[in-house]
Structures are given as C-alpha cells and as structure tokens.
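hey so i finally got around to running the thing on that chain from the lab meeting. sorry it took forever, my laptop kept dying and i had to restart like 3 times. anyway pasting the input first so we r on the same page abt which one it is
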Amino acid sequence: MTCEHLLLPLAIAVPFLAGLLLVCGSGLSTRVAHAIAWTGFFLPAAAAYYAWFIFSAQNGVAISPYLFFDDFNTGLGRFGISLTLGLNGVSLPLFVLAGTVGLAAGGYAMYSKVDRPNAYLGLLLFMVSGLMGVFASVNIFYFYFFHEFALIPTFILIGWWGGPGGRSAAMEMTIYLTLGAMLSLVGLIALYMVSNAPSFSLVDLGHWLADNGLGAHAQYKIYALLLFGFGILVSLWPFHSWAPTGYAAAPAPAAMLHAGVLKKFGLYGLLQIAVPLLPLGAAHWGNTLAWLALGNLLIIGAVTIAQRDLKVMVGYSSVMHMGYVFLGIVCVSALGAGGAVVLMFAHGLSVAVLFLLGDAIYNRTHTYDLNSMGGLCQKAPLLSGFFLAATLASLGLPGFANFWGEFTIFIALWQYHPWMVAAAALGVIISAIYGLRAVSKVFFGAPTPAFLPLFNQPLPDIRLHERLPAILLLGVLMFVGFWPAAITRGINAALPSIYGSQTAPLIAQDSPACCDPLPAVASAPAKPAPNAH
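ok and heres what got predicted. didnt touch it at all, straight out
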C-alpha cells in the first residue's frame, strides 16, 4: 500500500484521535489543545484537496471507478461488512465539501468563548471524522455507520452549548432523525437481503443487480423506505420542522457542519445508492417526490419570507433550497443527478458561511431580530460585503457555484415536466425577497432605536478569525463558479459507471446537453482493483 492510499483512512482517523485527546484531556493547556485541534481540522481538508488535485490531473478519470480504492478487514467479512474506502466523481465534491466546511467551522470554533472548550472542539472533530467517512465509504454499512457517528455529537453540542431552547430542539431533532435513520437502515438492509450480493459494497450490489435484476414491486417498496428515510434526514417537506429550530439553537460551528455537510447524507444516499440501483422505484415515486420538493421551495419559501429572526431565516432557507436538489433527483437522469451534486456542494458552502456571518452579526448587535438592527454597514463595511456576497451566492448569482447547480437542474427539469421549471423558478424570486430584505434590514438604513445605544459605541468590523473561514468558503464558491469543470469533469466521468451508459455530459463542461432516462436496471460499475490509483 502506497502513502496515497493512507489518505482516506488518515482523513477519518486523525480528527477522531484528535477529538478523543481533547475530550479526554481536560487538563491540556490552551496552546496544546489548539495544536491538536488544528491538526484534526487541517489534515482532512488537506487530504480532500490533494484528492481533488489528483482527479483534476487525470481529467476526473481514475484507472478504476474509484480513486484510492482499498478494503480494510474489520473481522466482519462473513456478514458482508468491510471498511471499503474510495472516491468517485460524485463523492469527491462532497468529500471536499466536508473537509472545507470542517476546517472553516473548526477555525471559527477555536475562538469561541464557551465553557469546556476542549470537549466542544473534540465533539466538532468527531463530527468531521464521521463526515469524511460518510463520503469516502463504498460499503453502505459504513456509509450509514459514519453518519450515525457524526450525528451523536450534534445532539450533544445543541443540548449542551445551544442557545435558548437548545435541549428541546435537540430532543426534537433526535426523534425525527432517529425515525429517518431507522427507515433508511431498514431500506439498506432490505436492498442487501433481496440482492443476495456477497457484501454491502456498492460495487458488489451493482454487479448483482446488473446480472440478475430486481422486480418492480421490490424496487417500489425498498425505494420508498430509502426515499422517506433519507427525506426526513434532509428535511423534505413536510418532515422538516426539526431543522430550522435545531439550527437556530445550535452553536454556529455545529450548524455549519450539520446544515452544510451532514444534511447532504440523505441526498447523497439517494443519488449514489437508491436511484442507480432502484431506477424503477425512482421513476415510480418521481411525481410524489416532485410535489413534496415543490413544497420545500414554495411553502417553506413563503415561511422563510415571514421570519424576523436572522438565524431562523437562514435555517428555513436551507430547508427551502433542498427542494432544488430533490427536483434534480426527480428527473432520474444523469444531468439532473449531476446538477444536484453541484448544488449540494455549493449550498453546503454558502449556508455554512451564512451561519458563520450570522453569528458574527449577533456578536456585535446581541440580537438576531431583523427589526432591531440597521445601519451596520457604517460600522462594519467588510462584514456587510461578506454577508452580501454569501447572500448573492445563495440566490444563485452567476460567478458562484450555486448558479451552475440550479441552472443545470432547471435544464434537466425541463426534460421531465416543463411546467415545473416555472414553479421552481419562483423559488429564485422568493430567495431574492428574503435574502435582500435581510441585507437591507441589517446593514442599511438608519439604526433602529433599540440598536442605537450599541451603534453609538465602537463596533469592530469582521475580525481575522471570522474573516479567514469566510474567505475560504466564499473563495471555493467563486473558484468553482468561474471554473465549474473543476468538479463537473469528475461527475461526468462517474455518471456512466453509476447511472448506466445512457448519459450526457453535465452542463458547463463543454456544451449544454440533456440525457436520456436511466435504463431499467443500472449498469454495474467495473470492479475496482484494490490499491489502484
């Protein structure tokens, strides 16, 4: 095994070990604790960017469908369970997303004034470890296992360090997400049991289904379990109420990691597992999912407009934008799937920076009430510029990665049902209303009487520990916004092996193109050779 093939195990193990040292080392000095934490947050990001560089150097095409593909014996081989790690063009952008948001959230959390800071940072590192494992896992058992591992620290962070209502929000999240996790687990086990595949590996499952097929009724039932299980985890309307309250109560770094990355678990599961392996089920449930996704866009969008709490508004906007990704999945096409991956990547970065900057605003105004601010641009012009940029990215302004995701989904949606494009486009207008209104109320106009006493005191502009994470997140958004081929090349290389041969290039690489629906049974990926790079 070469050093490169240790990259994925180290990206998972290092933050876990760093978190363990911090949680168990309450007597560590601040300097030592920060050194351990920086190592745990930095190495996964470095591993992700190195893998991204390797993919780019190969134009997104690895020797096998997975880069750094390796099996690690866990002693559970007789149950079809082994720690199989690898990256393809669909998982790589989300692996990079996890490393990027993890580094930004960790860097910001390092300067949080909380009680028991070592335990706080340690739990965030556990989340990062789980997130890296989710998107690096080829075996669906460990895909699920790492999600649950990342989810447990989320509950603790909200319950212990959350704001008002933190414990009740953590309890509500626990109930909803446990239900979603159980449904999806039953679906994954059912998929393995009916397939008679030799293991839980996506490669083995794909080969078995390509050779033997799976009956339509079995696909309908298993896909329903995965759809609603994953849907609850992603806050699919009307199973969404846990998300805005949970994010409003969560510490900013925890909200960045959960809304920005962990919530993509369900979407990724649908794209990488459910749709390609159960295409008849995906087609059968397509119209139902389309209507629910429009509920995310239009109903939750209207609720977002009504919010007057900045953090709650960002939470609802995160729920709303999941509707676009679901619509990309509804298309059951490679183009829709590719657009969904791009938007997942972009949304994760933009919502993370909005939660970070929202916390920065609160630290200066001591309120999230939009009606109790005003004129902050005069005191913090850099902060206002960063927040405006993050808002415009969330709106899908050209020049940011969000634009390519939404635009590609609209093109794919036109091939599915043209009228849905008009309905989905209303979401852009809704986003502009609540996003630009928030910018106006916080930064422009005259300060409100409630804010005037603070306004007349010296207020610092955005500080270095706030500025650097924001620059990292916005910088990656703009990099992909101006050069979308940086991730679409890998997506285009992966889609034929995941979704079958009837695919077309994702928009923004060469020219706009649409693709045919998926075949009845997805083509199996070629079996990767271990240690192949």
